[in-house]
Amino acid sequence: PAARTKLGLLEKKKDYRLRAHDYHKKQNALRALQKKALDKNPDEFYFKMIRSELKDGVHVIKQPKDEVTPEQVKLMRTQDIKYVEMKRVAEVKKIERLKAELHLLEAAGSGPARHRFFLDTARQVQEFDIATHLDTVPELVDRVYNRPTIATLQRETLRGATDPAHLKKLAQQRKNQYDLLRQRIEREKAMFVITQKIQTRKDLL
Prior knowledge:
- Helix content is 60%, strand content 4%.
- It contains seven helices and two strands, in the order ααββααααα.
- The chain has helices spanning 13-39, 48-51, 70-102, 122-127, 130-134, 150-155, 164-204, and strands spanning 52-55, 58-61.
- Strands 1-2 form a two-stranded antiparallel sheet.
- Strand 1 (52-55) and strand 2 (58-61) form a beta hairpin.
- The model is unreliable at 104-112 (pLDDT under 50).
């Protein structure tokens, strides 16, 4: 009605219920605090009584100085060593698993992988066909990984094993795995150095 426009919007029932709920919640909290104050033992001792000081009319809790004994320091560093060593061992396992996936045939820094075939006669050398010996097609002879046999090629298309685009994708995946392997090796070395430093500091205590 125009007569009550100055009073603003008319309060809905849901608004009243929310306001009433909030009011009763605050009243209950106040009553709980009052009861706690009434039940409090005046002779009760709190450590805050000796750990607080008055600054500008406000009670401030004094922060106690941490007193760490040499034995506690050694224990903490022992725990640090165990944690770092655990992470390092986990990293070593990941490295070994990644190496297995990459089919690393020789140690780092060695030359390209080679196959040696031993034949008895000169005629066998002349008639020797490496593709036949490896049971694969001539186009895949130079591969040292992911080299399917003829039976495999006949059984399935090998997801485009001879497709240049697929081969390029495989090469990129292999490069990414080698990059990941290098990162993991560096991380493992760094963890080993950290372990040695912690142990040295622990021994000096």
